[in-house]
Design brief:
Chain lengths: ~375, ~375
């Protein structure tokens, strides 16, 4: 099928670019002896998780129990739930899954750990546990000086296997001078954490971190032995603005149709916040909701739910009603979550259709 | 079922508040002899469309063909597709629907109208058509001076029934002094448009406009005889900030669980942009992603996909891990689109579960 036969808006993924992205990260991880455990929230598709495993990923990462349930179909040997799972019903579902695939969870407090321990015991399961440490993002995770204390408590709890430390350097948006300085700081914090945990008599077998913007600097973080990038499979405008890839490494774009040219110097396309998400650009000049592939000089200035406003004053070409444009989203993970399916393309041919099976799994 | 038995995040709708919102708008429309044709993109649920019709709505509005297909199940006698439908496949689907329910489409150019005309003829259907005019939003719609020309062209096309004029005053965010001045300007523009259309020998039977922020000023727009508010069924933080309702008129909130309290003066809840959308506040101080019902002094400062960061420094109470909070979203339409179902509540009892059948209908 030719892409012109697709109803728009449609999320396209160039399968060759995706494959290149996957291979590059896998080779990097292998070269530096890092376990690659991709975060699958970017694609939410078991078949793509399977491809990541085939190329050398050691396991997969998810955020929610519903995502874990979906991603188990990839055949992964283990799943890291890199999110605090709170509540008996969710933990029960997770324990049911633990009968089929090794589960590890990251926690930042003893209350949550006790809940996990209790449900693991009731289910007769043994669950891996990581102590989540805040290395500067200020989201979840204990402070570095609390890490060893938490680790000791975790290691004592029945039903749990203390595996190590988790952290997320999501505050590093770009590996420029400031980013490198921040990474050095993370490095220093982490060294202190690992030292304190070891002094407490525990060996953190897993030291799990990593993100897409800092992916190819991961070998500079001493002691980290596992990385969990997500976005790298597709990349997006944020990744380019972070200088973590080039435009030609962006595998995903949204095919949209021009539906109005009534307002001067503007086209309106049939994709807005319901298609792309309203995530702003997280770096650079912060302007725009995506890159127009056919005319990078055009600016995606504004969105409503179904309307994308594109300023074409500096566009390289004109667009008529009914013509299509491809737009690289600011944040591809958020865009994927809005689509029922993704179309794998090679050139202008649709060669795959994947259902986004993990879409909208909020619980 | 008690709401504490729901897995979070869960979208709750207070059915009594919703009913009051529906009745109020229906009574207002009746009193002022306005046809009420609610935009169903806010709820995306046929059963709620049916309730709107029972309370006096004359028909329903949708944006996409996929939404029209879903909303036909409400039993509505007619559907207005208030969005430019471009492309043969979509129009074919729309014509299939036109065999069951009267369809009206709004267009802002002759190319789109020709496509609709052609497919209507092929299907042996007669479709209502409205000339879309831009009254200041700058999104879609011909300029006011082009309206009569477009109307004349539409009226000539076979398969189409010229019904009148459509416009959307979405640039009026608040009925304050500036909003009232803008509404007066819309009024003036509209008078000119209607006059020019009539002078061209056509009677615009339908003059369709309206939005939630300006809903209760609709009777001040001379010549407008149909209103299409959407958000009014649930209301949201944007509606309150627009002074178009009070907090107690907000029927919808998202029940979230506190999953981390590790960072000082902050709680993290299990709903972020994948649960609420990342839509900013469209007025007021522009700060925050929603209102914490239990502690309005808390500030929902930041989001990632699954994490909501809430600054609790000025919160009226403390929150522990595992406790739930209800959060009124900035933009409820965008939030609804992210949920598989909505729970109707009365007090703390879940009395209804609605599947969001029109969710994610992008095409």
């Amino acid at each position: 099928m030719h892409i012109s036969e697709l109803d728009t808006p449609a999320l396209l993924v160039d399968v060759d670019v995706m494959e290149r992205n996957l291979v590059r990260a896998a080779e990097y991880a292998r070269e530096h002896n890092l376990r690659l455990r991709p975060h699958t929230k970017t694609h939410k598709i078991p078949a793509l998780g399977r491809r990541q495993l085939e190329l050398g990923a050691a396991g997969l990462t998810v955020a929610k129990v519903g995502e874990a349930e979906v991603m188990a179909a990839s055949g992964t040997p283990d799943l890291l739930v890199a999110y605090p799972i709170v509540g008996a019903r969710k933990l029960q579902r997770l324990m049911a899954l633990a009968a089929r695939v090794h589960i590890t969870v990251a926690v930042d407090n003893i209350c949550t750990a006790l809940q996990v321990s209790q449900l693991a015991q009731l289910a007769g399961q043994r669950v891996g546990i990581l102590a989540e440490v805040d290395v500067g993002l200020g989201r979840v995770g204990v402070t570095p000086d609390q890490a060893a204390g938490l680790a000791v408590e975790l290691a004592r709890l029945p039903g749990l296997e203390f595996e190590g430390i988790a952290f997320y350097p999501g505050h590093i948006k770009k590996m420029d001078e400031a980013g490198e300085a921040e990474l050095a700081r993370v490095n220093q914090v982490l060294a202190g954490v690992l030292d304190s945990v070891r002094r407490a008599g525990l060996e953190p077998r897993v030291v799990s971190g990593g993100s897409t913007p800092a992916l190819y600097s991961s070998h500079l973080v001493a002691g980290m032995n596992e990385i969990r990038p997500g976005t790298y499979i597709f990349n997006d405008k944020n990744t380019v603005v972070a200088s973590a890839c080039e435009w030609q490494d962006c595998a995903a774009s949204v095919l949209c149709t021009v539906v109005s040219t009534a307002v001067k110097d503007q086209i309106v396309v049939d994709g807005g916040s319901k298609t792309f998400s309203s995530d702003r650009l997280g770096g650079g000049d912060g302007i725009g909701f995506g890159r127009i592939v056919e005319a990078p000089g055009a600016v995606f200035t504004k969105m409503n739910e179904e309307h994308g406003y594109i300023d074409v004053r500096n566009a390289e070409r004109r667009f008529n009603i009914g013509e299509t444009v491809r737009i690289i989203p600011n944040h591809v993970c958020a865009a994927v979550n809005l689509h029922e399916q993704i179309y794998g393309i090679r050139g202008e041919e649709v060669v795959e259709t994947w259902k986004v099976e993990g879409r909208g799994k909020l619980q």
